[in-house]
Amino acid sequence: MARPHIEPFVDRDVPFKKMTLPGFPKGMQYKMLSIDTDNGACSMTVLFEPGYKQPPGMSYTEYELFIMTGSVTIGEKVHGPGSYVFVPAGVAIEALSSSRGATGLLFYNHGEPSFVESDSDHPRAERDRFASVNAYENMQWTSTNFFPATAPGCLVKVLRFDQRTHAFTFLYCMTPNFWQDNISYHDCVEEAYHIWGTSWMMQFGELPTGGYFWRPPYINHGAFGCKLGTLAIGRTDSQLYNHFHFNPWTNPEENQERAASRLLHRNPELYKWVNTHGHNHPIDFDYDHGHAQGDTPHHHGDGRVDHGHKKKKRRRR
Amino acid sequence: MKAIPHKRSREVEAWLKRELVEQKRRYKKIVAEQDALAPKRDKWVAEFLQRIQTRGTHVHWDQMRKVRPEEIPVKPKRKFRVVF
Q: With an 8 Å Cβ cutoff, is B44 touching chain A?
């Protein structure tokens, strides 16, 4: 995901814009939070005007919708504040409307926003991955289960978890007077939006309601503090591991080097295998072979990961 | 299937171009604002380095350890960047 480091950004400082992309009905407005320079994937604050109506339809990319205020109705079901919907690429959702208006967050994960009117799924849609939950009403706060863990007082509700990549979308809260005196970085992208409340980080200062960040891997953040409590939504693109330390001045290259070094101690056998195997192209028996799918960076002992593979021609018998 | 291959229209390409230009502007503004925060940040860092020697630094959950004076890192000569 090629998005620049956007941190901090407060969407309350900018006005809504009308959504003018083809396919989207009138009455939807947005504020762009961050956008991928390669594929157009993006995160937006959205406003559905009172009376908004959208026919049944699908998107070419998977997307996630979180409702912050007001409500939208999809088919017969009303989605109020705290509602979260994950819609895989090509899955057609029923007509969406908002009689009194709503605000929310829309995340298009692998391509630009798109809407194609349709009352049936695209042939390549994976409907079984569709997910919908009201996080305020039907989920309980739990402690983070990352090891090493964040300090007590930071609680989460996991809205979606990708079993292959360990990417996840989650609500998190910081209790009043939360503090954590260390510096953290991760191997994954981390993104968050403050639904309510102000928190503080030693690098960036205060992040208020409407505050947002898209943080690429290995960037220092912390120490942390929160006086009155904060409610936020967060996302990662792969597993979140807390690399804690206390050097404020390290850069992403040094942090990545340290993370790789730590991997040697945490997963010595795996590290050894990846480092020494001539053809470091692990095959996951749960998924397609990487060559066929083209999604597994690897090299053939020469360190060059920027290469492709032609399909092997089958011999005619 | 993360995304279904499709052809972008000219309108979509133009929209993307506009958004990317705006993002560049947004990024530059963030960098300038964060540069301006440097004096405050230096003070916060000094306080942090003091606290971790007296109260301790978080290692895991509520486990903390006090950092010895000789472990305190030295500020490098390069520019202190927080936005990359």
A: yes
